[in-house]
C-alpha cells in the first residue's frame, strides 16, 4: 500500500534512519501491505527499522501483521512489540521463527496484559521457554488477558516447569479457545499440570500437545476434556443464538405491542374528545330544555293563578246569584202575600171606583219633607 510505504519513508526521514531496501521492495513489488494486512515475512529487520515500524503501526491501518522469520533482535522485538501496546486494530500477529528469548517473552507478557484487541498470536519456532522466569512473566500476561482466543507455542522449548506456569495462567484465562503446544518438552508432569488446569478452564476447546513425551492416557484425557468444553461451547453458542432470536422476537413483540398501545391510546383520546364534545352538546341541550321547562313552569303557575282567580270570581258570582235568587224569591213571596191580602178587601168593601181609588191612595203615599203622608 503506497500510503504505508510513504509513511514509512517519512518516518525514516524524520528519525534519520536509512530505509531498508528489502522492506521498500516488499511493500511495493510484492504487495506486502494489501488492504488490512501487513506482511513483511522473511525480511531481516534492524532495530532502527523496528522503531519506525512501531510508530507506523500506531495509526491503526492494519488488522493483521505478519513478521515471521524476520530475525528480530532482542532490542528490535522489544521496540516493535512495545509500539503495539496501545494498538486497537491489530487482531492477528505472527512472530514465527524470530528466536525470541527472555526479553521477547517478557515484552510479550506485557503486550498481552495491556492490549485488549489481539485475538490470534503465533509464536512458533522461538525459544520462549528456555528462561523460566521470563516465561512466567509471559504466562502472567496471558492470565490477565481477556481477548486472546488462539495461541501457537509450538517448538518453544517449554519444560514441565513452564507447563506448570502455563497451567496457572489457564486457570484464570477465560478467553483462550485454541492452544498449540506441540513439539515442546512438557513430559508427564507438564501433561498432568495441564489436565488439572483444564478442570477449571471451560473455554479451551482445542489443545494440541503431541511430541511432548506425554503418556497416551493423559493425552486422551486432555482430548476428552477439551471435547467436553467444545460440546459445552457449542451448547452455549446455540443457546446464545436462540436467546438472540428470542430477544429479537421479544423486541419485535414489544415494538408491536407498543404500536398497538399507542394506537389504542390515540383511539381512547379520540373517543374521550368525542365524548367531551357530546357531553358539552348534551349539556347545552339540557340547559335549553331546563330553560324551556322553567318557562313552562312559570306559564303553568300563571295559568294556575288565573284559574284560581277565575274560580274565586265564579264562586263569588254564584254566591251573588244565589243571594239574588233568594232575594227574588222573597220578593215574589211578598208580592204573593200582598195579592192575597188585597183580594178579600175588595170583596168586603165593594168593588166601586171610589173605593178602589182610596185603596190606591193608601198604598201609594206621597213624600212631604221627611215624613210620609197618606191620602184619604
TrEMBL record:
Residues 327-342 have a biased composition (Basic and acidic residues). Residues 325-376 are annotated as: Disordered. The keyword Coiled coil applies. Its main location: cytoplasm. InterPro entries: Centro_Cilium_Assembly, Leu-rich_rpt, LRR_dom_sf. Residues 254-320 form a coiled coil. GO terms for cellular component: centrosome; plasma membrane. SMART domains: LRR_RI. The keyword Cytoplasm applies. It is found in: Cytoplasm, Cytoskeleton, Microtubule organizing center, Centrosome. Keywords: Coiled coil, Cytoplasm, Cytoskeleton. PANTHER family: LEUCINE-RICH REPEAT-CONTAINING PROTEIN 45, NY-REN-58 ANTIGEN. This is Leucine-rich repeat-containing protein 45. It comes from Oryzias melastigma (Marine medaka).
Amino acid at each position: 500500500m503506497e500510503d504505508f510505504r510513504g509513511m514509512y519513508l517519512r518516518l525514516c526521514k524524520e528519525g534519520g534512519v536509512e530505509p531498508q531496501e528489502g522492506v521498500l521492495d516488499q511493500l511495493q513489488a510484492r504487495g506486502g501491505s494489501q488492504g488490512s494486512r501487513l506482511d513483511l515475512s522473511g525480511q531481516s529487520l534492524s532495530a532502527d527499522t523496528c522503531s519506525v515500524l512501531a510508530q507506523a503501526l500506531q495509526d491503526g491501518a492494519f488488522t493483521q501483521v505478519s513478521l515471521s522469520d524476520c530475525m528480530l533482535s532482542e532490542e528490535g522485538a522489544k521496540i516493535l512489540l512495545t509500539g503495539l501496546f496501545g494498538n486497537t486494530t491489530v487482531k492477528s500477529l505472527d512472530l514465527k521463527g524470530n528466536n525470541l528469548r527472555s526479553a521477547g517473552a517478557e515484552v510479550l507478557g506485557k503486550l498481552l496484559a495491556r492490549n485488549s484487541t489481539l485475538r490470534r498470536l503465533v509464536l512458533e519456532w522461538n525459544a520462549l521457554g528456555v528462561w523460566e522466569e521470563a516465561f512466567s512473566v509471559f504466562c502472567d500476561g496471558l492470565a490477565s488477558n481477556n481477548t486472546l482466543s488462539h495461541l501457537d507455542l509450538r517448538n518453544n522449548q517449554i519444560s514441565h516447569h513452564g507447563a506448570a506456569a502455563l497451567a496457572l495462567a489457564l486457570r484464570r484465562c477465560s478467553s483462550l479457545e485454541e492452544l498449540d503446544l506441540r513439539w515442546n518438552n512438557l513430559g508427564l508432569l507438564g501433561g498432568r499440570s495441564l489436565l488439572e488446569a483444564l478442570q477449571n478452564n471451560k473455554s479451551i476447546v482445542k489443545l494440541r500437545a503431541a511430541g511432548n513425551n506425554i503418556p497416551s492416557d493423559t493425552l486422551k484425557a486432555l482430548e476428552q476434556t477439551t471435547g467436553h468444553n467444545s460440546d459445552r461451547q457449542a451448547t452455549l453458542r446455540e443457546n446464545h443464538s436462540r436467546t438472540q432470536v428470542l430477544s429479537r422476537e421479544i423486541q419485535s413483540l414489544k415494538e408491536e405491542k407498543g404500536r398497538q398501545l399507542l394506537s389504542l391510546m390515540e383511539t381512547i383520546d379520540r373517543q374521550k374528545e368525542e365524548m367531551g364534545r357530546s357531553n358539552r352538546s348534551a349539556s347545552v341541550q339540557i340547559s335549553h330544555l331546563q330553560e324551556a321547562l322553567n318557562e313552562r313552569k312559570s306559564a303553568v303557575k300563571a295559568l294556575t293563578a288565573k284559574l284560581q282567580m277565575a274560580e274565586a270570581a265564579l264562586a263569588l258570582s254564584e254566591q251573588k246569584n244565589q243571594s239574588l235568587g233568594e232575594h227574588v224569591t222573597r220578593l215574589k213571596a211578598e208580592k204573593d202575600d200582598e195579592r192575597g191580602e188585597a183580594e178579600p178587601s175588595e170583596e168586603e168593601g165593594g168593588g166601586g171606583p171610589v173605593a178602589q181609588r182610596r185603596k190606591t191612595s193608601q198604598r201609594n203615599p206621597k213624600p212631604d219633607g221627611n215624613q210620609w203622608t197618606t191620602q184619604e
